[in-house]
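Components:
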Amino acid sequence: MSYRIGSGIDFHQLVEGRDLWIGGVKIPHVKGALGHSDADVLLHAICDALLGALSLGDIGVHFPDTDNTFKNIDSKILLARSYDLVKDRGYKVVNIDSTLCLQAPKIKPYVPHMQETIAAVLHIETADVSIKATTTEKMGFVGREEGLVAYATVLLQKAIL
Ligand SMILES: [Zn+2]
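Structure:
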C-alpha cells in the first residue's frame, strides 16, 4: 500500500470591494480576499497539498497568475484540476486536515458547507475534510485584518485497480 503526504500554505490580502470566498463558499463580509482568481485561500492551500504530495510543484506552476484563463476563476475548478492530476497518477484522497487563520468574520457557521463542497470535488466523505479555524489573538497582519492564511495537509493512497 502506497501513501503520500502533502502540505500547503496560502496567504491573501483582505481588501474592500472583493467577495470573500473560503472553502468554496461565499461568506458575507465587509472585505474580501485579493487575488488573480477568486482568491479562495483554503482551496489554494488544499491544491498545493495535493500537488505537493506527488511532487508536482505548486499551484503557481499549474495555474499561473499571468494566464488570463485563470482571472477571477472559481477555485473549485482549480481544485478539481489538481484532483485530476492526483487521479491520473492512480491516487485517491484519504483525508484532509486544515486550519484557517483569520480575525474576522467567524467562519464556524460556514464550515459544514465548506466540508460538503470540498468533499464533493475530491470524492471523499465530509468527515474526511477537517476545517479548523483560529484567530491570532489580534497579533500581526491577520490580527489587523489585513489578510488571512490557510494551512492544509492531505494524505493520498494509491488506489487499488
Ligand atoms: Zn491563493
